[in-house]
Amino acid sequence: MGYPTTLLDEAIEKNRKNQEKQRQKIMEIITHVLDDLSGEVDFKEAYLFGSITKPFRFSEKSDIDIGFLGLSDRDFFKAMSIISKKTGFDVDLVQLEGHRLKEKIVREGTKWKR
Fold first, then answer.
1. This prediction's pTM
2. CA gyration radius, the chain
3. In what order do the strands lie in the sheet with 64-69?
4. pLDDT tens for residues 31-52?
5. Neighbour tally for 65: CB within 10 Å
6. Strand 91-95 vs strand 64-69: parallel, antiparallel, or unpaired?
């Protein structure tokens, strides 16, 4: 006969729900950050992808993945710095022009809307 794990199961589920709430909150924050960024840096489109777009997959150890269309090399690190500072997370930016995963990111990612 095994030991009851009710308390542990409840704690795990509570943590899981809290992480999901945090993910949703960060998605809202990123939308506002991209709104602000569009006034400082020129780009045509942005797509969130990876764990930030998947329910119950994002954690405090995750980074934020964003693919850009029309983001210049000159503004790449500026955009990365601004997003990282405003979200408090590491950011992985991808310039989608010519990128091997462009079609997948555009198809499966969450498009930022102005």
1. 0.89
2. 17
3. 91-95, 64-69, 45-49, 110-111
4. 999 999 999 999 999 999 999 9
5. 18
6. parallel
